[in-house]
Design goal:
Chain A is mainly beta and 111 residues long. Chain A has strands at residues 4-7, 10-14, 19-25, 32-38, 44-51, 56-59, 62-67, 72-77, 86-93, 99-101, 105-110. Chain A is globular. Chain B is mostly beta strands and 111 residues long. Helix content of chain B is 0%, strand content 52%. In chain B, 37% of the residues are buried. The chains are: A mainly beta (111), B mainly beta (111).
Chain lengths: 111, 111
Amino acid sequence: KQEVTQIPAALSVPEGENLVLNCSFTDSAIYNLQWFRQDPGKGLTSLLLIQSSQREQTSGRLNASLDKSSGRSTLYIAASQPGDSATYLCAVGRSNYQLIWGAGTKLIIKP
Amino acid sequence: DAGVTQSPTHLIKTRGQQVTLRCSPKSGHDTVSWYQQALGQGPQFIFQYYEEEERQRGNFPDRFSGHQFPNYSSELNVNALLLGDSALYLCASESRAGELFFGEGSRLTVL
């Protein structure tokens, strides 16, 4: 059974710092992995999608990596800004069309 | 280009009642998935619709049912509401690359 874990559950850093969010999964037979951002009480915004054949994806200040053999993905945020404050969730895609989700990391960027 | 739209945004029901939530996918997307997200947790997959058929279902009771229309819009119906059904219900449409795009959600409160 695929399980997805995100550690830490919450993180607070000063503005301007580079930071890494972690996502681990137990079954390496994945279809893809996505990182999402969720603001309080809102829906989810897709940040990056990594297909199982890829090692990383980049979008602006965000970089996501995927290591299937170790069951890990990281989301790197460069030069953090207060507007980056949100909950970040990773979701692992399986061949049966389902996504298995982590519980998220709540990120607070202090001005 | 309108993204995924959901209605209503908020609603309050009492135990035993029935509710219908609606979703219009992003233009060009023919696959719609529904998720339930309890406070502080990651989304849980309810089911996915493709070509007006339920293609995959998560671990939810038969009280949860859905429908997809020829224009790809979708409805989620929940019968015999329980207090535990209170949650944010998210609809997502999927691109051909497998990337999910979410609506803002429907916040259901069951009293």
